[in-house]
Design a protein that fits this description.
Strand order of the largest sheet: 1-2-7-4-5
Helix content: under 10%
Structural class: mainly beta
Largest sheet: 5 strands, antiparallel
Strand content: over 45%
Distance between the termini: 35 Å
Number of strands: 7
Shape: globular
């Protein structure tokens, strides 16, 4: 509690997952076992490495995932991450 929170919401077949972090940098392993069988495309937005100098700059990564995947996120101090996952 009071360290980090991750919330997932579905809209149709799309998923939106958001993580917010407190003042301690941490690595988070996000299991995708909530997805149905099949292939998905995950668009992942995370803070850039120099987030303390560039707070409005994000890194964007797109990759193919399934429910068996685990996405590793590095959450910056007072940062977070956003994922948009859609079925292929």
């Amino acid at each position: 509690m009071n360290e980090h929170v991750t919330v997932a919401r579905r809209s149709g077949s799309d998923w939106w997952v958001g993580s917010l972090n407190n003042g301690t940098e941490r690595d988070l392993k996000l299991e995708l076992d909530f997805l149905s069988e099949g292939d998905y495309q995950a668009t992942i937005y995370t803070d850039v490495e120099d987030v303390d100098r560039n707070p409005n700059n994000l890194d964007r990564q797109v990759r193919k995932v399934t429910r068996k995947d685990i996405i590793e996120l590095n959450l910056a101090k007072d940062g977070g991450a956003l994922l948009h996952i859609r079925r292929l």
